[in-house]
Amino acid sequence: MDEENLLFIGAILSIALGGLSLRLVRKNVNLPWNEAMAAHILCLMFITKGIQNAAFGYVNSESTGDIWQFWAQIAVSMDYIFESSIIAIALLYPVPMLRNMKQVKVGLGLVVGLALFRLVLDVVGLNFSVFGLAGVFVFVVVLVWGTVYIKFRLMPAEESNPSTQNIALVAGLFTTLVLGHVWMWWPGFILQSEYFYFLDPFGVFSSTVANYIWVAGYAVGIAAGLTILIVEIHQAIKGNVNTLLYIISPYFVLGIIGFLIYSQGGASGFGVRAGSEGAVQLWATFTTSMHFTIIRPLIAMYILLRFSLIEINDETKPLAKTMSIVLIVVATSAILELIQSIIPINQMISAALLGIIIALGLGWEEKSFQTLVANPGQLRENIDNRWFPELDISRRNIGRIEIACLIYSLVSLLIAYYVWEFDVILELQMQRGG
Amino acid sequence: MTDSENVLSDLFSSDGSRRNISVYLVVLVVALLYHASVYWFILGSEIQAKDVQINYTIEFEESSELFSDSRTINDGEKETLEFTASADFFDSKSGFGLLRITISYAETSGEFADPCDTVSADLVLTDVSADWNNANNVLSGVSSDCETIALTLYVYPEYDGQPKEGTGLDASHWSDAWSDSSYGQGIFELDVEVLVNEPPTSGIPTVSDTNEEVEVTWEAVFYDVSVRESS
């Protein structure tokens, strides 16, 4: 299984998670305004992320003709939603940074404006330029969620309670969702390795300055990750262990192994239509791509279920279980396929293994689903009310986010068609030295 | 904006929080400065050099597959001849560059003073992937003097056998750009029509010229691409 196949798997996972959870979030009418908005945006983000994954899969597999421009434009347009969604969620959840209607309007207006501004840049031929502020969302993530994490995780013992620890956990989980793949490059950042500093996500399309801003975001992301890791280890030593430690540690351990592998290869990181070879490619597929395509949906599902963004009752339980089963079955079978691609296993054995792994996965899902549903994580108990201001935002207005997202996606389709028909990206490739 | 509406005042509300968050922000700034110094100074020249565009020369080594066919075509009739390039060439070569077709004939009636017949040839536009709209294509021809008709179809877009220049990306990109085996796959069809020009003695009952033998040679020009840095 190569990378584009994993992208298609990721597309299925993301769209399944986004679509099914959106139905469940709609039914949860008791959510406070900020959680309802964040949950809606999270679901839509995963639907569009799924479209992006599929589009990137087509970009990587379409070697003939110029239709790859269409898919590339769809992918970057959907990435604009992803980045804006991340910023929006950071401003709303787990504790709202926006505390009155004016702040909500200005804050979310800027977020929407950023996505639209980037689309306009693409239409006028300034794709992948510095003006697009690519990577700026990483700075927002480390500033907002990082600060919230530090604030609530390191609260004095007398003020600390399960809710403060859960708020820190949510902030840490979202930071992991966004930056987990970057954390696996931490030795490269510190040891000045080419595979980190030569990262060129947009290849010939982006300038040295644009690459700098992008990679600088990764640098502060790694700094934030290492800080979280140190805090978690320190707290664990003090006997205050949090689930987050078990989730983030593997990323940093894999970073050490990755350093040894990346240092052997000439290729750096990832890029649009970039090819890298052998062990480096394999490692990137197992780590970076797997984080993008499989781990992110699983983290999101955990947040949705654990912190009651989805209300589980007799009516919603079958759909919620279906969602978690789909995610676990597709994820486990994809992982087995990945393993099979490097260790050739007899088909009968692999079929049996797949059955066993899925059975174990479903067994684990049954147990963990019950645990999650039975013990939802509280974010508001024994927390000062000023952290959670009440705003009068109707569910009808929150539901309009979906319509806005749909309109944006349709406009993106038109723009992608325009970009393809008028060879905008190919022209750029020639102008910028491709 | 009241204090309760300002989240920053709550984030920095106690000495402990102020210290913790300040330390965190300092760590971020240090990381940013460290990254900037490595990116612009320590590895600056290598990173700048990475973005310098390399020029590539793309060269082609040609090899051809020849196939001959001959037909005797009656006066006023049209025959369609077909040609499919060998799969071995598609497998072993980088691409199918162009297709040359020669249609030759002579006056074979044996009659005294019989002039050459008129032969016309048209390469039919089919669903074979090729550069059908290339301005240099010669897709049809006519001959009335026994001259050979030469047709040419440029199959691989922009291929003309001459070396090309490419800038940026890497050698494998340019090699891949010239290694698409989908071009030229399929059946080419050539319509050949014969119009007999009767000899001056055709009034004599035993003298007649009713057909002509036409020989068609298909030359499928394949190439191997090689890419080298030129600067």
Note the main sheet of chain A: none
Task: Count helical runs of chain B.
Answer: 5
Query: What structural class do helix, strand and pairing data of chain A support?
Result: mainly alpha
Measured between the Cα atoms of the first and last residue of chain A, the distance is 29 Å
Quickly count the domains of chain B: 2
- If you average the pLDDT of chain A, what whole number results? 87
**Fraction of residues of chain B in helices?**
10-25%
- Overall body shape of chain B: rod-shaped
Characterise the protein shown here.
The complex is a heterodimer of chains A (434) and B (231). With 434 residues, chain A is mostly helical. Chain A has one domain. Chain A contains 15 helices and no strands. Chain A has helices at residues 3-27, 33-61, 68-92, 101-123, 136-153, 162-183, 186-190, 194-197, 208-237, 243-264, 278-306, 317-342, 347-374, 395-421, 424-431. In chain A, α2 (33-61) packs antiparallel against α11 (278-306) and α11 runs antiparallel to α12. Chain A starts with a helix and ends with a helix. Chain B has 2 domains: 3-50; 55-229, Jelly Rolls. In chain B, the strands form 2 sheets. Chain B has a 5-stranded antiparallel sheet, with helices on one face. A 4-stranded antiparallel sheet of chain B has the order 2-8-4-5, with no helix packed on it. The two termini of chain B are 61 Å apart. Classes of the chains: A mainly alpha (434), B alpha+beta (231). The A-B interface holds A 63-64, 95-97, 99-100, 103, 142-143, 146-148, 150-151, 154-156, 189, 192, 194, 197-198, 200, 203-204, 207-208, 212, 215-216, 219-220, 222-224, 226-227, 275, 386-387, 389, 429, 432-434 and B 1, 4-7, 10-11, 14, 16-17, 20-21, 24-25, 27-28, 30-32, 34-36, 38-40, 42-43, 46-48, 50-51, 53, 167-169, 172, 176, 180, 182.
